[in-house]
Amino acid sequence: MFTIETERLPIQVWGESVDDATLEQARHLANLPFAFHHIALMADAHVGYGMPIGGVFAASGQVIPNAVGLDIGCGVRAWRTNVPVSDLLPVRDAVLDAVSRAVPQGFDWHDASQADRTDLFGDMPDIPVLLEERGRAERQLASLGGGNHFIELQADPEGLVWAMVHTGSRNIGKQVAAYFDRIARERNRKEASEVPPDWELAHLPVDSEDGRAYREAMGWCLRFALESRRLIAESVQAALDQRAGGGEPDDAIDVHHNYVSAERHFGADVMVHRKGAVHARGTVFIPGSMGTASYVGEGLADPDAFESCSHGAGRVMGRHAAMRALPRTKVLAELEKRGVLLVKRHLKDVAEEAPEAYKDIDQVMRWQRDLVRPAVRLRPVAVLKG
Fold first, then answer.
1. Do residues 153 and 95 make contact, with C-beta atoms less than 8 angstroms apart?
2. Once rounded to an integer, what is the mean pLDDT over residues 23-35?
3. How far is it, in rounded angstroms, from Cα 17 to Cα 1?
4. What's the pLDDT tens digit per position in 94-129?
5. What is the rounded CA–CA span in Å between residue 362 and residue 248?
6. Cβ of 214: how many Cβ atoms within 10 Å?
7. Is the distance from CB of 290 to CB of 319 less than 8 angstroms?
8. Count: domains in the chain
């Protein structure tokens, strides 16, 4: 870790370096009048919208929708299935086929409402943006989405299969983020906020009606994302039970990495924004890129990182740049060489998630060895991408 001390607050970086665009966004955070103590950039930090992905930022009395991000509640659910890898490999095509039929991917939704599978919609807050999106959200629940969202089957060193689900709040989280960002921008304009609009860091007072409404809507989106991953996990486990002989799975652990939380750090009560960062207490999951290792780890609750760690490997190449630079045939050949079965409906954008578009996950883990202790290294054997 190294520290940049040229701004109002220090910027602490867990990594070898930080690119110019990411650093500029971190400088903006460090110069916010309500920023607290310091800014933390995790080992996977890269440029985002307003705030770096892989950034952790504590605020005194304010919340920033763009410092949480558009995919509110995005996170990972993982569990050891206790199915031997040797039992999975002969049937993994059938397993992934069953999962792909049960879980819509990309822009696809369920044909009918999934509300009867959960009590989630019974306590939806009476907030306009949520009510407007409810019908769509009922059909998007338990769907995977696209981009870097995935379902992966992985092998541990003992030869047992783990399953990992990475997805978030789908379109309803995006709409909540955009709705409250618009409110925050208009409020900041009327109140002559000293935060420049082009920083894309419009803010709301925590104790204002708008601030309370954002946190309530965000909290519901977190529950949506959690329930969505739980239901997807049920489909994954059912496919394993039916086609790979099943097993007695361990309890799943689920961690968010896009949210804001009221916490106490360095003697003060603050709002900690984690955008692409995990609260590193207890068990954490740190996925690599498609076709590379992922880690189960023990969070070390380092106070200098606001008790956080990275949420993954972190991009080094934008999606369009990756598609221009990496031939699709080469990406697919490399996955086959690594023994990874890929199921993806549309292969034209497969290079977006190629390993070369991301940092080396093993290097990321070394950079953050004071934040998380590796416990299990997982090797991918099958992946379903949106």
1. yes
2. 98
3. 9
4. 999 999 999 999 999 999 999 999 999 999 999 999
5. 30
6. 26
7. no
8. 1
* For helices 209-243 and 128-140, angle between their N-to-C axes, nearest 10 degrees: 10
Which positions ≥6 away from 226 have C-beta within 8 Å?
73, 75, 254, 256
Provide the Cα torsion 29, 302, 216, 287; round to 10°.
90
Question: What's the whole-number average pLDDT of the chain?
Answer: 95
Interior CA angle at 274 toward 270 and 277, to 5°? 140
Q: What is the pTM of this model?
A: 0.95
What distance in Å separates the CA atoms of residue 42 and residue 39, rounded to the nearest whole number? 10
CATH number at 121 reads 3.90.1860.10
Strand partners, 358: 315
Alpha-carbon distance of 281 to 294, in angstroms, equals: 18
Question: Is beta strand 294-300 parallel, antiparallel or unpaired with respect to 281-286?
Answer: antiparallel
Alpha helices per DSSP H over 200-327 = 209-243, 319-325
What are the pLDDT digits (tens) for 338-367? Answer: 888 898 767 767 878 888 888 999 999 999
The one catalytic residue among 28, 279, 311, 346 = 311
Cα separation, 27 vs 39, in Å, equals: 9
Q: Is 311 a catalytic residue?
A: yes
DSSP 19-68: -HHHHHHHHHHHT-TTEEEEEEEEEEEE--SSS-EEEEEEESSEE-GGGT
CA angle 350, 67, 224 (to 5 degrees): 70
Residues near 154 by beta carbon (within 8 Å), at least 6 away in sequence: 161, 162, 163, 164, 294, 378, 379, 380, 381
Domain extent, residue 353, equals: 2-385
Alpha carbon distances (Å) from 81 to 92, 105, 214, 248: 14, 23, 37, 7
Angle at 65 (CA atoms; ends 61, 66), nearest 5 degrees: 120
